């Protein structure tokens, strides 16, 4: 059962094939999402399929599409930026924090038994709170949500050995770069564009990113463009030429070559195969 607030929305629902229809998913497309998956779950996230060996949390920004592949019963929490992501929140647990802007991976947080039980307990508190009509319900939900994000941030940092202050500085720089890519990838395709925004040379930008990531700045930009291309090919009826224009390619033939080289098949073939 989803409970909505008049102008600040928060929802909690079972995440199964049966509970998620297209109309509902479209209604929360622009919401930020947290999902809890029991071990053994198989889930598709933006054209990649994952099988989870342990209980896990997944943090996703708006527009990313998640689909359950098996008859699992996960938990989906979704909320809009007015509900939680306001500027006064600490940068690590806000919507531009580690969990929601991470260029390392699609961000699953693996949980041990104790951590999983803690998260389950908080989810149960959220469910009980949503049945309440108390005037403090909204604030209590916000607090519980922040506890999940705080605990998950600590777990992720520990798992990635990022409790060291020097490493944390490098991670923050990588997050800053990835945020710039997310904001400008449609109009800025060159590493030099982002180096200029960061007041450094492309060479120094590459060196700084290499300290903590196996991907080069060019890889990160390229991967974001390919992902958006796949989304537009799969979820819209836009022509290849329209998609090229949307991504600021003047020459659609160049875009086709770029996509084919990096995706392993042409845009037309990707669209046909993914629909099948």
- CATH fold call of the largest domain: Jelly Rolls
* Text of the CATH class of the largest domain: Mainly Beta
CATH architecture of the largest domain: Sandwich
In terms of structural class, how would the helical and strand content be classed? alpha+beta
Q: Distance N terminus to C terminus? A: 33 Å
Extract low-pLDDT stretches.
1-7, 86-90
What would the average pLDDT be, to the nearest integer? Answer: 83
Share of helix among residues?
40-55%
Lateral strand order in the biggest sheet: 1-7-2-5-8
Instruction: Write the CATH homologous superfamily of the largest domain.
Output: Regulatory protein AraC
Largest beta-sheet details: 5 strands, antiparallel
Number of domains: 2
- Counting DSSP E segments of at least 2 residues, the number of strands comes to 8
Number of helices: 10
SSE sequence, one letter per element: EHEEEEEEEHHHHHHHHH
Q: Shape, please?
A: globular
Oligomeric category:
single chain
């Amino acid at each position: 059962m989803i409970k909505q607030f008049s102008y600040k929305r928060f929802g909690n629902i079972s995440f199964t094939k049966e509970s998620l229809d297209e109309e509902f998913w479209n209604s929360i497309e622009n919401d930020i999402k947290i999902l809890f998956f029991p071990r053994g779950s198989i889930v598709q996230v933006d054209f990649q399929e994952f099988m989870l060996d342990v209980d896990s949390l997944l943090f996703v920004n708006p527009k990313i599409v998640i689909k359950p592949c098996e008859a699992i019963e996960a938990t989906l929490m979704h909320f809009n930026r007015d509900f939680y992501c306001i500027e006064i929140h600490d940068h690590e647990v806000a919507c531009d924090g580690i969990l929601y802007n991470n260029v390392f991976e699609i961000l699953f947080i693996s949980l041990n038994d104790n951590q999983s039980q803690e998260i389950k307990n908080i989810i149960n508190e959220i469910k009980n709170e949503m049945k309440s009509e108390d005037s403090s319900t909204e604030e209590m939900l916000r607090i519980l949500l922040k506890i999940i994000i705080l605990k998950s941030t600590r777990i992720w940092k520990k798992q990635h050995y990022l409790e060291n202050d020097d490493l944390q500085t490098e991670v923050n720089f990588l997050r800053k770069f990835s945020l710039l890519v997310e904001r400008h990838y449609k109009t800025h395709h060159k590493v030099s564009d982002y180096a200029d925004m960061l007041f450094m040379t492309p060479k120094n930008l590459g060196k700084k990113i290499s300290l903590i990531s196996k991907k080069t700045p060019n890889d990160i930009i390229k991967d974001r463009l390919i992902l958006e291309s796949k989304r537009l090919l799969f979820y819209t009826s836009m022509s290849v030429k329209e998609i090229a224009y949307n991504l600021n390619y003047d020459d659609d033939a160049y875009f086709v070559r770029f996509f084919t080289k990096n995706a392993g098949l042409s845009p037309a073939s990707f669209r046909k195969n993914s629909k099948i």
